[in-house]
Amino acid sequence: MSGTDRRGPVTGPAILRTALRRNAGAMAWGTLLMGLYQAGETAFPIALGLIVEHALQERGLASLGWSIAALAVIVTTVSLSWRFGMRILQKANTTEAHRWRVRVADCGLQPVARDTDLKSGEVLTIATEDADQTADIIEVVPLLISSLVAVLITAVALGIASLWLGLLVIAGTIAILTILSVLSRRIGEGTREQQARVARAGAKVADLITGLRPLHGFGGNHAAFLSYRKVSTEAKDQAVTVARASGAYAGAALALNAILAAAVTLAAGWLALGGRISIGQLVMAVGLAQFIIEPLKLFSEMPKYVMVARASAERMALVLAAPPVMTPGTLRPSPGGDLEVDSVRYGSLREVKFHVPAGEFTAIAAYRAREAADLAAILAVNVPPGAYEGVVRVGGRELKDLSVEAVREHLLVNPYDAEIFAGTLRTNIDPEGTGHLVAEAVEASMLTDVVALHRDGLDHGVRDRGANLSGGQRQRLSLARALAADPGILVLHDPTTAVDAVTEQLIARNLAELRRGRTLIVITSSPALLDAADRVLVLDGGVVTAEDTHRNLLATDETYRQAVAR
After folding, report:
1. Same domain, 284 and 378
2. Transmembrane region positions (predicted)?
């Protein structure tokens, strides 16, 4: 289930068109200013030629003064147009990249995942590198047009001096772009593959960081290292391949541009020797031949940037176009807080059926960890209702008919491995700063000793993933966050596996007291929690095989006694 379905472009070309359309104003101003910059740059050698031509004829100080003033105007125009043109374009580029980052992140953070087959590390790479490279199209198009302006002005100026020089520039430019367009396709294909491999390496890093402690526990460090080295080597090799292609492209562009400039210079010299152009026109032609290398280089690199932007846009489309794994409903649960699981079959669950009335503290003793995990995944809506048989009802309504907002308001499943975020103890317990049970949650989860240890109390800093906290402290912090949320139905999955027996006893008593009158379900094998519950359901072999109080089950069920007694 997801919130409002955000409509928009779902293909790479459509993403690029959207970026261009909503930045049309900034690009128009940027193109105008950058075109003025290129025109000023082109005007400089033209002005020099005219000055030489005029000086040879008049030889006066007044003429020299006017010439210097004209050059000053050209230089000022070049400086200001570049400054403000690039400021406009880079602001639009940065803003557009931010928009796409937010949109990709929004898709990745939806309560119900999208069917992308991408890991979190890959989505992160798409939301950063690919968003930036896609937004580069905002600068590429104005720079492409302004470079074309420079080439056309050069061709016209040389064409006025000699038609053959103008035709040489036009023909040479067309030949250069034709050759380089072939190379740019190879770069685009290589870049797409490189980005995919970098994303896979990023996903592997994210997985390794998440599982670092378990890896240390069973000695899997070396195997994990070899696995990461393999994917990172593949990304490196592909990056080298793309770098080689880019180097060949840049070298070819520079060589072809230099050949064209040399051809224009030699042709102008030959025409001047033959008396078909003047000395001033020769100076202009030589100056333009040197100048044209830069806009031609910029102009010839544009196809490469366009291909890279398109490859990145197509990778973003993998996330944006992916459908949600389930279709959300629109209803809300009826008042109350009852939960019903009716004949659910999924994974290790065979025919699970039970009902928890509103306000009851129910414990579920699952003999197998896989069964507990599958049940928690279904209640957390990590498994779409269409992926399992049977029905889950919250407040009398089927889960598939409820909106995601309604589910999150009424039902919270806190996993045993809940994430701890960089920030403070307070921001981890009450992220939005609106909770009214923070103090009670801290006390109930027995987090008071952690708070008391630090001068800053609840404002004590917490590192990413709770790196500066012990396992028990992280678990209690996660439990405090769940309690402070105060949902109508709270499901806790093994909330005390990392705490000592005395603390566990106190937490069990506190949970029963704090959640009195509110529905609480704890999936656990902890005797303390089982004893504090109003009722215990035994989950064995994928079905509920017994239900009673903890003490009655201890007295009458030998299997239960062996499974939970410590």
Report:
1. no
2. 26-52, 64-82, 140-158, 164-183, 254-273
